[in-house]
Amino acid sequence: MPALPPVSAADRDHMVGLAEADFRALAGSRLFITGGTGFFGTWLLEALAAANARLGTGITATILSRDPDQFARRSPHLAANPAFLWWRGDVRSFPPPPGNFDHIIHGATAASAALNSQSPREMFDTIVHGTERVLEFALGAGAASHLFLSSGAIYGPQPPNLAAIPEHHPGGPDPCDPRSAYAEGKRAAELLCALTPGLATKVARCFAFIGPHLPLDAHFAAGNFLRDALAGRDIIILGDGRPLRSYLYAADLVVWLLAILVRGQAGRPYNVGSDQAVSIADLAHLVARQHSQPPPVTILGTPGQGPAERYIPDIARARQELGSELSIDLAAAIARTWRWLNSTPPCTL
After folding, report:
1. From 196's CA, which of 181, 238, 298, 335 has a CA 20 to 30 Å away?
2. Measured at the alpha carbon of residue 143, what is the angle toward residues 139 and 144, in degrees to the nearest 5?
């Protein structure tokens, strides 16, 4: 597997510039990160490496991974960074690395629609038992705080009369539907965090994102559209294209997560995402326009009746309490992702 390039200097400048105060608050800290080799984790490592290089923050991180060798082949510049230590293990049963840690970031979850559909019990157990293990470890490691990466899926279907979902929304997924395993696992994991005294847990409820390292062959519409546009083939929408989503660029995502880790209130969830709604059809056209010869967008579904399905967060809490903002709009986010993908060896896409 050819190595992937680092994220752009502009993205590194963006993260370090906007989160400088939070990076400085973490100076000299020792972090433990689960999920450090996925989409979120790779961006966190890029940001930490950039902060150490540019601000001299001296932050170190131990990253739990089942296969650190695979990550080293994919991102050797991060795997070889002396600030990062690699700890092999499964999130449900890993042996504790030695010493104390100042902060824990728990993001290990297989965000896989296939796993959720084919092995829902495994999905649920991984989330719940993995969180139990991380909480047990965090208490023993003397961590000052714990950031749990949850999901907007915990709210269940968004009511059609609700423009954006606030953190106090009382909805939830259908507990009798096996397809709710991911969402119910995240709900149960949040409850486990609340039931763990002596640990300052902050919760980030994450929605939808776009940026380099987003999988192109999973269940993410943005990734699928980018894949098809790169290949110059038609962008296919299986549904009617009306559902509304919103997308936060990965560099902004990191800035928001750091703000929650450093300045968020323990026991208080924060929605993380964009509140700027875009239809799936419009997203496909935005992606298609990145190509010098935009491929056609084909919508296979017939127009539905009633209001379009929505999945949009209310982000007033993060704005008011943490100063979190959308600094990179969707058009710019797609353009930045497109440029990075075009600098990537084709056989790795």
Report:
1. 181
2. 125
Say if residues 123 and 110 touch (Cβ distance below 8 Å).
yes
Whether 231 and 224 have beta carbons less than 8 Å apart is answered as no
Q: What contacts 28, CB < 8 A, 6 or more positions away? A: 57, 58, 59
Q: Cα–Cα distance between 233 and 56 in angstroms, integer?
A: 45
pTM of model > 0.85? yes
Task: Record the tokens describing residue 83, joined without a space.
Answer: 């600030």
Please report the DSSP string for 172-193 in residue order.
---TT-GGGHHHHHHHHHHHHH
Report the DSSP beta bridge partners of residue 104: 32, 146
Q: What order do you get walking across the sheet with 201-206 strand by strand?
A: 84-88, 60-65, 30-34, 103-106, 145-151, 201-206, 269-272
Strands (E), 168-284: 201-206, 209-210, 235-237, 244-245, 248-249, 269-272, 278-279
Q: Which of 73, 59, 74, 53 is nearest to 29 (CA)?
A: 59
Q: Is 263 exposed, middle or buried (0-12, 13-18, 19+ CB in 10 A)?
A: middle
Q: Choose among 149, 163, 54: nearest CA to 108.
A: 149
Tens digits of residue pLDDT in 274-308: 999 999 999 999 999 999 999 999 999 888 888 99
94 has pLDDT over 60: yes
pLDDT in tens, 122-136: 999 999 999 999 999
Nearest to 220 by CA among 182, 184, 247, 196: 247
Measured distance CA(62)–CA(312) in Å, rounded: 33
**Residues 271, 273, 276, 282, Cα dihedral to 10°:** -140
Chain centroid, CA 226 distance in Å: 18
Structural domains of the chain, with CATH: 9-212+247-274+312-328 (3.40.50.720)
Place of tokens 């929408």: 237
Residue % of the chain over a pLDDT of 90: 89
The predicted-structure confidence for 167-219, as pLDDT tens digits, reads as follows 999 999 999 999 999 999 999 999 999 999 999 999 999 999 999 999 998 88
